[in-house]
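Hi support team,

I'm opening this ticket because the web form for multi-chain structure prediction keeps timing out on my end. I have pasted the exact lines I submitted so you can reproduce it. The total is 1410 residues across six entries, so I didn't expect it to be a heavy job. Is there a limit I'm missing, or should I split the entries? Thanks in advance, R.K.
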Amino acid sequence: MALDPQLAATLSRVTTATLTTLLLKKGLRNVWMRGTRPLDPGQPRLVGSAFTLRFVPAREDLATPESWSKPISTRAAIEAMPEGCIAVVDAMGITDAGIFGDILCARMQKRGVAALVTDGALRDVAGVRATGLPVWCQGVAAPPSVAGLTFVNWGEPIGCGGVAVFPDDIVVADDDGAVLIPQALVGEIAAAAPEQERIEAWIMGEIDKGAALPGLYPPNAENKARYEAAKGGKS
Amino acid sequence: MALDPQLAATLSRVTTATLTTLLLKKGLRNVWMRGTRPLDPGQPRLVGSAFTLRFVPAREDLATPESWSKPISTRAAIEAMPEGCIAVVDAMGITDAGIFGDILCARMQKRGVAALVTDGALRDVAGVRATGLPVWCQGVAAPPSVAGLTFVNWGEPIGCGGVAVFPDDIVVADDDGAVLIPQALVGEIAAAAPEQERIEAWIMGEIDKGAALPGLYPPNAENKARYEAAKGGKS
Amino acid sequence: MALDPQLAATLSRVTTATLTTLLLKKGLRNVWMRGTRPLDPGQPRLVGSAFTLRFVPAREDLATPESWSKPISTRAAIEAMPEGCIAVVDAMGITDAGIFGDILCARMQKRGVAALVTDGALRDVAGVRATGLPVWCQGVAAPPSVAGLTFVNWGEPIGCGGVAVFPDDIVVADDDGAVLIPQALVGEIAAAAPEQERIEAWIMGEIDKGAALPGLYPPNAENKARYEAAKGGKS
Amino acid sequence: MALDPQLAATLSRVTTATLTTLLLKKGLRNVWMRGTRPLDPGQPRLVGSAFTLRFVPAREDLATPESWSKPISTRAAIEAMPEGCIAVVDAMGITDAGIFGDILCARMQKRGVAALVTDGALRDVAGVRATGLPVWCQGVAAPPSVAGLTFVNWGEPIGCGGVAVFPDDIVVADDDGAVLIPQALVGEIAAAAPEQERIEAWIMGEIDKGAALPGLYPPNAENKARYEAAKGGKS
Amino acid sequence: MALDPQLAATLSRVTTATLTTLLLKKGLRNVWMRGTRPLDPGQPRLVGSAFTLRFVPAREDLATPESWSKPISTRAAIEAMPEGCIAVVDAMGITDAGIFGDILCARMQKRGVAALVTDGALRDVAGVRATGLPVWCQGVAAPPSVAGLTFVNWGEPIGCGGVAVFPDDIVVADDDGAVLIPQALVGEIAAAAPEQERIEAWIMGEIDKGAALPGLYPPNAENKARYEAAKGGKS
Amino acid sequence: MALDPQLAATLSRVTTATLTTLLLKKGLRNVWMRGTRPLDPGQPRLVGSAFTLRFVPAREDLATPESWSKPISTRAAIEAMPEGCIAVVDAMGITDAGIFGDILCARMQKRGVAALVTDGALRDVAGVRATGLPVWCQGVAAPPSVAGLTFVNWGEPIGCGGVAVFPDDIVVADDDGAVLIPQALVGEIAAAAPEQERIEAWIMGEIDKGAALPGLYPPNAENKARYEAAKGGKS
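Hello R.K., no limit was hit. The queue was backed up. Here is the completed structure from your submission:
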């Protein structure tokens, strides 16, 4: 299911740090996918619906080069990815085999996939960088996926970096890694986020003027009033 | 799919140590489920078809006591287990929440489930022991499953202890833990196993008489001939 | 602060499994101290107020046999332990040095300490067993504490097995390990626990009669009514 | 306690590699804080007295956004930091929550804190970089501290990266990470360090001329004499 | 090199806990082999010279059942073991393959090997127990060694459980695991150990009479004098 | 043994990703050395025969600055390295001590060593970078090797990053890390590699034109024919 473009635009201006604070206030402490680091520093923030892929451990009779031609394969999964989605791959945190290399990433890029997020590793990293597909992953490894992983399906609930990801949940990824927003909460979070960013920007301004932290962050009644006044003045 | 009773009877007389040697000779090195230790020492060897269950990490909006009443729940999964199966549970190696406690194990025992195998933990271990259900697991933890895990489905391919398990693969569990035999190989393995056990028993006899290892284990041509002669003599 | 004896008596009849379920319903998912296993199977359930001890890593200039004679030492800490407390020791999960051996445990036993709980290891385990002090720990290691640990203080907030423990929080330990109840919640939990144990016992009876799980555990309206009726009949 | 400026100046010209060698010769093998990597490559070497902060694991009733306004909070700790200190934060090696983000780091920078060292993670890393505060840490994570940590105090002995750090110990951090010098040893180490750097520079010159390692590094009597002669010639 | 029988007899009456304390006083903090747990509780303390074996990771072209017949094999190593030695096996801490099973252990038992110590796992544990060979190991695993390990040699320096072991170093193993005594120190340690055990026994007696710890353990001048007097009285 | 220059030239044009795929087709799944990351991004691919070095854990009586002057030392090992070799160092994955610093790396560079590969850490990383020696390692640590490691020998079989390395095996290292080619297979692999690279380049061209993955990668009969035709046309 495609993500509403206006929600996506709003979320693309909110840091994952702010999103995790808002989600914690809703009772969700476990939404940040461990090990999802940007392959290249400075990748822009990306937002999309999750398209999930799932691996189980390798078994020599199943995880073979021949398996790449089967109807259920990573190749078929990629052809099923809708434009603008974020592919989220459960590699069980295994980092000694690369889930994808340059060819698969090039095809994802061609299909308009927004980003690839995994708790596993990529291979042929020089080639992957050349495709321009934005990637968040735990590392780099030369061996093919079948050296450590058996692909089983797409479109299922998965774990990625210790976080439960269901198809069509929302993923936001930036310099701090990738964060999950449950589909049911995305409207609420997107509504609250811009104000949170605004007040934090005002606080940074106060810090810059030499203000001390207690009473400022989080703001007490007095500072909330000052912020509201300043906001009024700005608008 | 029920396991052929004769195959099951044959396999129940073969150690998992011997089975892993035979599987390695077929090219399968990764069939032993890490962390699957017998809950009680001296549990008899058990054999059955795998009935798989799958968890993903906990999410506070999903992993709730209320989830226990949903149509897709561990409760529903247990009611779907056929008699004689071995339930194999993918807990992603998480050992700080218990997948099942005494009540669920008691029901499994009532339904004739042969054994429970998991890379996770059990809870209320005193109660579980009292049910008499044979369990292979990685540990014991007081918290309920929803403290760390979200149940997602049964009857799917899973990973358990770093091993790929597909529904209806064969599982054998003894003092050394639980081992997977791919369904396609079970006939071949069951055919070869008794002879392997026989020759190892003969070798143990030779060791007992003071024989040295080189040439004996594995046997060279001379010792193979001696074994064949001894076997002939016995039969 | 001593724990109210009636609360203690109530809690001593409740499994840690049930306590963690009740605490999760209050929003606390992280109360089970990882790695706290009973040194001997079959130790009875114990309840007490937490008396905390804290180690930091070893430093060769500080963690010396001479440090054992200092005013701030594990020896002094033991002499400060009140009767009936449970000593909870933050060893940072380090398991290659033993925090205490037979002599310190013998003194704790003499002083009426109810139990020792740690995410670290004990040493001279044969001697510790002989003292009769009930111990929950992560393992056994021959080296003295100073081989890996520097003792710093008692009576401070600590982490033990990934759980925050404050002085005078309540600790309950049984076959499933040790669980923390925040002091502010102990009354509420102790009030709810016996009923939870009663209904689970009734459910076990139903399982024994062959009832299926869905609708029974947790009970739906119909089964709740049946339980209430049964309870009425019993009383 | 402020570090003597001349000692600081001397130490700022010595690599942490050389400092650990000198400390090992004094019997201290465990002084390098594991996981303390420069947030940005090329940060200059920094020296300061340790100002310690301590976290324990998160507990949902304690680790809340409300806790940020308490008298004992990370905010209050920052206001207590003296100019020129190095803040050393015990995050128990937890890397899935960020101890501080841009606002707290901006305030530290304003207060003249020399550097932030932790075995945990930072959050809002783009914002943190913008503050200009030099940081050594184990990684980056979007979630707020309360998602995984409860702050308990400042000015206490802590562990950081497996090293015991006491308030007012000296910390030196460079490309190789952060190293602890016990306060009692800092004079002795600072006295020996420049000579060690000098002889290593001379050895590098010999290597450059094609000399072999045995007898040169460490230098035997002949090479020591040659070095002394060269040094004499230079001065 | 065979261990002097009188030294062996002395050491067999000293706990590994006491030995590690004495070695720490000589500056050796790292002598306890992590993960070396007695296979069966209650195994008597054993003492012997180390006979080392070394594995590297498995490689499919080398770690084959055929390799068991090579001149350099675990079989040949066992035939080279002298009576009374303790075999110490470097399995690099790998616990998902068993280094030895019942047949190899039976042969070691026949040859008079005192014990087997490893940071790896045993396989066919029921069979191994039946041989009567005392074993200290990190676990149990069904797969054969070649599933995870390639044997390379015997009689070389190794690491075992994070400890450097050289051929002919002394090993003592009891309920607390296995401890290394460098060959050069064994005389000194054996000379000091009985007195250390005697004073600790006297301290235990004092504890039993109700004495407090400070000043007693370690004893201050007054208590040392009392101990000396008591010792005099006894002899 | 020096590597044939033509083989080396061929291999230097093949990615380690492609090499691991070819080795997997020969049955070798475990050839990629975990943790061997390029110290600097963009290091060119390097090929050489393995020259092995082996450490065991530190022991305070052996791992001393004095040991650096012994006949068997890292210094002597470096002087034994032939020009063009790749030094592969088994540090048992220990990353809290640096195996080598600037002086040893400078000498290796002088001797014409092609590269240094280790599963351990380097120290004085700024100095190491200045030497120009290409390094693949798991990290950076200030402490000297003797803080955590005892050097034992060179020219022996070792494990590095979970891979068995024998002297004179071939090592290829690039952006994806370092890969082992058994000496016996190097001719075969070098013969097959260029064609594999050619067909993958053709596939990338097809992807660029918008082709879908199924049937293309790996190519089915039709696409193989198209590739052969294209290849014919090119030549």
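A quick check on our side: Chain A has a mean pLDDT of 95. Let us know if the file doesn't open in your viewer.
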